[in-house]
Amino acid sequence: MSASSRILNLAVIPGDGIGQEVVAQGLKVLGAVLPPDVKLETTEYDFGAKRYHATGETLTDADVEALKRHDAILLGAIGDPSVPSGVLERGFLLKLRFLFDHHVNLRPSKLLPGVATPLKGQPEIDFIVVREGTEGPYTGNGGSIRTGTPHEVATEVSVNTAFGVERVVRDAFARAQARPRKKLTLVHKNNVLAYAGHLWTNVFNKVAKEFPEVTTDYIHVDAATIYLVTDPGRFDVIVTDNLFGDIITDLAAAVSGGIGVAASGNINPSREFPSMFEPVHGSAPDIAGQGKADPSATVLSVALLLRHLGYEPEAARIEAAVSADLAERGESVRGTEQIGDALAVRVAG
Amino acid sequence: MSASSRILNLAVIPGDGIGQEVVAQGLKVLGAVLPPDVKLETTEYDFGAKRYHATGETLTDADVEALKRHDAILLGAIGDPSVPSGVLERGFLLKLRFLFDHHVNLRPSKLLPGVATPLKGQPEIDFIVVREGTEGPYTGNGGSIRTGTPHEVATEVSVNTAFGVERVVRDAFARAQARPRKKLTLVHKNNVLAYAGHLWTNVFNKVAKEFPEVTTDYIHVDAATIYLVTDPGRFDVIVTDNLFGDIITDLAAAVSGGIGVAASGNINPSREFPSMFEPVHGSAPDIAGQGKADPSATVLSVALLLRHLGYEPEAARIEAAVSADLAERGESVRGTEQIGDALAVRVAG
Ligand SMILES: CC(C)[C@H](C(=O)O)[C@@H](O)C(=O)O
Ligand SMILES: CC(C)[C@H](C(=O)O)[C@@H](O)C(=O)O
User: Fold this and answer.
1) CA angle A60-A62-A63, nearest 5°?
2) Residue B244 has what pLDDT?
3) How buried is A190 (Cβ within 10 angstroms: 0-12 exposed, 13-18 middle, 19+ buried)?
4) A186 with A296, same domain?
5) What's the total number of domains in chain B?
C-alpha cells in the first residue's frame, strides 16, 4: 500500500430476508463512489436468523471483538418470523447499540421530489431526528413476578442519566447549528413522565445557552405525531428519547416517502467503537429473494456511513444520485439490482 | 318526581380556555336529545387553572367525594400555559383517572364524509382504540437522584398487572365482538419491552380463546404509526397500553378529521365510580373566548357518555346529527354556538 492510500475497513452484515439483496447494492454504490486511493476492505458476518437456528448464537464475545476492529458496520436487516419476537432484536441489534455505545441514533427524513407520500399536497419535509440510543425504556431494566399467573406484575424501567441526555442533546444542537434553519425541537412527555421529563427539559434548556443561534421549542410526543402529518415542515432537527424516537421515526419515514428510502445511523461520535448504519426497514420476508426490494434506504445509509468517517463529498454524491434517481423514476418499476446499477453509474459519473 | 321519571345527574367541568364554550354546546345538545321523562341535573365545578392560581388546589378530597355522587362527568379541557407543565395533568386529570379507576380509555376514530383528512384519497377510517388508563408508565412511579447535577439519574417505571391488562383486553374483545368486522389488534412493543410485552401478549392470547369469532393480530407501536397513515382501514378495534394509546390516538385523531371531532371516554365499566367524557383536544388558549372552537368533539363525547349510561338511541341520534352536520358543512365557517344550535335542532327533530 502506497503512503498516500487509505483503507476503509467495513464489517458487512447482510442479515435476514431482503438484507442480502439491498446490502449488495449498497456495496456496489460504495465501490463506485470511493476515490481510487481508498482501498475498500469488507468482512462479511453471518448474524441473524440462520446462524441463530444453526448455533443458538446471536452475538458472541468473539464476534464483538471481531466487529471492533472495523471502521464501521453496514447492516441490511435482522429478523425473521421463525425466531421468537425479541430474541434477535435484544440479542443482536440492541446488544450492539449498547456495547458500542451508539448513543446518537440519526434518522434523516427528506421528502425527495418525485417520491410519493401518503399526505395530501406534497408538503416540504426536511428534518432529522436525533434519537437517544442507549437509555430510556430500552435498557432491559425491569422484570416480572408471579409470571403467568393472574397476579403477575411486570415492570419496565426507563433509565435516564444527565450524562446520557446531555451528550445526545449537545450533538443535536450542533447538528441544528450547522443547518440553515437552525431549529431544534425537544420531543418528550414531560407532563406525565415527570422525572425523566424534568431531566430532559432541564438539560435541554441548559445546553441551549451554548447555542444562542439555535431556535428551540418543546412538543409532547403525542402532539408531535399530529404535526408530523399536518405540518411536517415545522421540524428541522428533533431530539428525543429512545422509545419516542423509535415511534416518531417510523411515522416520519412513512410520511416522507416510506421506509424504502429511510436511512439510519447508530453512531458513536467518539469513534471509540465502530458505528453501524442500516436502513430503517426490516427484513421483509414476504418479498425476500425476489429482487424487488428498493435498495435506496441502504444506499442512503452508506452515505451516512461515509459522512461519519469524513468522506463528505462522497456522501453528498450518493445523496444527489438517489435524489436524481427517484425524481426520474416515475411510474417505472425496477428491480433491486437495476436500481443499484443506476445509482452506481450516477455516483461514478 | 313521578315514578316513571329518571334523573341524569351530571358533574360538569368546563375547565380552561375553550372548555367553557364547547361544554355549553355539549349541554345544549344533551338537553335537546333527552326524552321528556329524563330530568337533567347538572352541577358545575371550577377545576382548572383559575382555581389553581386562586387556591393552589387542583382536586381536593372533598372535591372527589362530591364528584362521586354524579352519574358521569363531562369535561371541557384542563390546562393553561400559566400553570407549570404537569401540575394540572397529574394533579387533576390523571388523579381522577386513577381514583375513579377509569381503566378503559375509549377513543373512536371515524372519518366522516365531508371531513378533511391530511391523507390522500379520503381513506375509509372507522376504528376504536381501547387504551388502558390506570397502569403502564402513567403510574407516577419513578424518581431521580442527584437531581440537577451532572450525575442525575431519573427513572420512570411502567407498572403492568395481569389484573389490569386482562380487564381492559377483555373489554376490547367484547367491543370487537359487537362490531361487524370483529377484529382486534394488540399494539405494543414486545420485542423491546419484554416483561410488559410478554404479559400483554400472553393475556391477549388467553382471552382470545373466549372470543373465537374475533380475528386478532399484533403490531409493534412504531409500525402501527405507519399503518395509521398508509392503511388506516386495516384497523377495527385496537387495544394498547396507556402511553402507546396516548400517542396513537392523537395520530388517529389527526388522520380522521382532526382533534376538532375526536371524542373520548375515561370509563369505569363497573360504574363503581362515575366515568368522565371529554374531547381529545386541549384548552386551545390561542382561540379561547372567540366563539371559534368546534364543539363537535365535545358533543360526540356526550354521545359516548349517554351510551355508557344506557341511552343508546340518544347516543346514536347525536352521532348521526354530527355526521350529517359535517357532511353539509362544506366550506362554511360557523362559530361554536351556531354549530351547537344546528346540532341541537337536528337531534330534537
Ligand atoms: C427492531 C427494534 C429493536 C428497533 C428498535 O426498536 O429500536 C427498530 O424498531 C428500530 O427502530 O431500529
Ligand atoms: C393531558 C395528558 C395528561 C393526557 C394524557 O397523556 O393522557 C392527554 O394527552 C390525553 O391523551 O388525554
Assistant:
1) 65
2) 98
3) buried
4) no
5) 2
For residue range A131-170, what is the model confidence (pLDDT) as tens digits? Answer: 999 999 999 999 999 999 999 999 999 999 999 999 999 9
pLDDT at position A3: 52
Q: Are A2 and A58 part of one and the same domain?
A: yes
Query: What is the CB < 6 Å shell around ligand 1?
Result: A 89, 93-94, 246; B 191-192, 222
Using a CB-CB distance cutoff of 8 angstroms, which residues of chain B are in contact with residue A149? 162
Report CA(B169)–ligand 2 centroid distance (Å): 20
Question: If you take atom 1 of ligand 2, which residue's CA is the nearest one?
Answer: B89
Residue A32 cell numbers, joined: 463506485
Chain B nearest-CA residue for A252: B226
Judge if A310 and A272 occupy the same domain. Answer: yes
Mutate to test the interface with B, among A229, A242, A244 (most CBs of B within 10 A): A229
Q: What is the pLDDT of residue B1?
A: 45
CA angle A197, A200, A202 (to 5 degrees): 105
Q: Which domain holds residue B305?
A: 1-102+260-349
Q: How does pLDDT run across B188-241, given as a tens digit for each residue? A: 999 999 999 999 999 999 999 999 999 999 999 999 999 999 999 999 999 999
pLDDT at residue B4, rounded to an integer: 65
CA separation, residue A207 to residues A181, A186, A330, B122 (Å): 18, 12, 44, 43
CATH number at residue B229: 3.40.718.10
- Hey, is the C-beta of B98 within 8 angstroms of any chain A C-beta? no
Residue-averaged pLDDT of chain A = 96
pLDDT at A1: 45
Confirm or reject contact between A148 and chain B (CB < 8 A): yes
CB contact under 8 A, A222 and B253: no
Q: Say how many residues make up chain B.
A: 349
